[in-house]
Amino acid sequence: MELYSLTAALLIPLGLGYVVLRFLPPGKNLPFLLSLALAFGLGTGMLTQWMLLLDIFSIRFSANTINMPLIVFLVFTGVGVWTLTRTRYPRKEPLPGQVMGTPQKQLRFSMKALFVVLCVVYVVVMTAYVFWRALSIPIESYDALVKISYKAKIFFFDRKIHLLRLPHNYYPLQVPLLQSWVSFVLGRWDDYWTKIFFPLYFSSYLIIQFYFLKTIADKYKALMGAGLLVSSNLFIFHATIAYMDFTIMYYNCVALLLMILWHRSETKEAWLMTAGLFSGMMTFVKSEGTVYLIIHVILLLVLLKQLKGVRLKEKISHFLRFIIPSAGVCSIFSLYKIIQGVAPFGHDRRMIWDFGMSSITRLPKVMAAYADDLFLSGNWSLLWFVFFFLIIFNRKKLCFYSRWLSLALGLFFLVYTGLALTTRSFAYIGGEYTELGLSRLILHFFPLIIPGIILAYDAESAPVQESYPGNG
């Protein structure tokens, strides 16, 4: 009975996200699975923002106060979405870069068919394992208990946030709010079902990456990308535990993939606005999300610079379509903390300034820690080695998006190198606690190397669109 209740309740965030996608369609109806995957990420972010809004207006949490207004909203907007879909977007169109109407040859039994079967079986088995492990092992690790589930229990039993009284009260609240929402739906606290969102984020990201790679390459490379992604031990592990790192990885990487789709599309604006929403929601998952949002803005400026034949006024318009939703979502919790009297980073000892003449001596240790984690730890299979090999080997043939993804990865590493040299974060990046922190930080952007590998392997698969056909 609980499973049925929870399954039905999950339709609420799915519906919220789907409504947004249908009112902001990228000029085309998306494939159904891709719509669900994107809707799940948008909807869970919107659900937690709604819970934060309820607390701001001193409305106590319960299944009815959270869910009933959302259900009413979905009923009324559902009619509008149905009408809009039938009248304005009557048929499914290709994703940016795809060609519709090309007859597909019947796949004969061959090495290619065997490859497809093996990839599908491998991905399905790993997905089943993620769901089994996530829902059969309770929340047990220190960070998951103290920084997430303890807060979620407070929200559930006292039905308020009590920000000033929370441990680590400067941390964003999306994951603990989601766990408390599951408890409100079930009517009790459950250390197993409160982890349901992590394998669902895992599945959602696999679907989004598959369609992205299918767009920029083909379905065989998309399947290969899915197989490569689930070959990472740490990626699989974090999809089964209640840490915030997997969730911020999801929002961070999906936003960047959507930015590439925007850049390739002839009807760009909704892709960019959706990317902005994912970037903004990322800031409500972990404190690092705000820094990542700055990186996203830098990467967007690079994309805008690449657009040829576009007036400055139009580029500013595109920029605003990203920054308004992203900064808007980011500002909600920031203002909430200011009103509550909570400092941006609280008393986080990792952010204490610690820079001096001797700080430069940390750099070799940080570089050694990077090399050890990327190539020798076993966390990432051989994926980082393959990525760097292909980037170096094909460096003269790399397309724009390969270079752009490499720039993104470089900016993430640059941020953490800078923190290691100037703050006490060094202990977790190149010092005594490296094993506890560095791999989790790298996980935040690790999946970007999969499209990086595919693009570098087939360097001419996704040529940059040099002209911009209009305002979208």
Describe the structure.
With 472 residues, this protein is mainly α. 67% of the residues lie in helices and 0% in strands. The protein contains 20 helices and no strands. Helix 3 (32-56) crosses helix 8, helix 3 packs across helix 12 and helix 11 (245-264) packs antiparallel against helix 12. It is globular and about 60 Å long. Residues 99-107 and 464-472 have low confidence and may be disordered.
**Helix content percent band:** 55-70%
Total of helices: 20
User: Any low-confidence stretches, pLDDT <50, length ≥5?
Assistant: 99-107, 464-472
Total strand segments: 0
The shape, in one word, is: globular
Q: Give the H and E element order.
A: HHHHHHHHHHHHHHHHHHHH
What distance separates the N and C termini?
Answer: 47 Å
Mean pLDDT: 87
Share of residues in strands: under 5%
Quaternary organisation of the protein chains: single chain
Largest sheet: none
> C-alpha Rg, in Å?
22 Å
From the helix content, strand content and strand pairing, which structural class follows?
A: mainly alpha
